[in-house]
Hints:
Elements: H1 2-10, H2 18-29, H3 39-46, H4 50-60, H5 65-75, H6 87-96, H7 98-118, H8 121-132, E1 135-139, H9 145-158, E2 162-164, H10 173-176, E3 183-188, H11 197-206, E4 210-216, H12 222-225, E5 228-232, H13 244-261, H14 263-279
Parallel strand pairs: 1-2, 1-3, 3-4, 4-5
Helix pairs in contact: 2-3, 3-4, 7-13, 8-13, 9-13
Amino acid sequence: MSKLILERVRHQEMRQSNSDKLISSYLERNINELPFETARSIAGRVGVSPMTVGRYLRRLGFEGLDQLKDELRRGNSNPAWQVKGPLEGLQADIRDGELLAGLIKQQIDNLGHIYELTTKAEWRQAVTTLIEAQEVYVAAFQNVRGIAQYFAAQLSYARPRVEFIDGLNGTYAELLDGSVENRCLFLYDVRRFAAKARPLAIEARKSGVKVILLTDEFCPWAEDVADVALILPGAHGPLWDGAATITAVLDLMVSNIIVLLGEQVNERVANLTRLQNCFGDFEA
């Protein structure tokens, strides 16, 4: 399917104006990334307006980007762990040190975006919600669930009633049964987006649960399903998505919560330490 779309993109009719050429070139180079893009993100990368991207897509034969994504999904698989680019070139780059240097630079740039995120109202709202909720539930899927489990474990040192939910009971009833008011769902999902993530967020809000969604710039439904949406840069390098950026974000969030809770955290950690010593899980 992507081959047929590329043929249309490369046709001279789709390259009449300067904007056409910019969009066509971008789509041609990044065909495998399109399921994770939005019209706004494409417009920002090529320097045109989202309306211009929309008009281009209609001329290409699609009512919008979602229809184009559906076509691509039916014909392609786009795993999160995906090498982007010729393997031979990447091997040469890593021998020369250029690949790793580029990846480190990308991580440093992403850390700058993290600082910007921590200054926003959405960040403060997320921290306040995680502090004030009676119960906090954390969810993530596939190859990023381990990072969310780490966050849940760290957060449980700062405050009680934090639970990672895996959905293996088929209902998420512990979150959605309404037995306790003022619940919070902290949902972490990045491309390739899990099929359960969006319906879980929607059901949670229907049940009166506040939803904090931590995701990347490729998520097209973040602000539609979350009370608070925290948007991170997506991966644009030659290799798969890494965990450095998200781990830094989660560590900063826990640190922020610890500072605000103050002495409450000291008392909780002291009690947890006593229990650890009681059951002998740690060396002296």
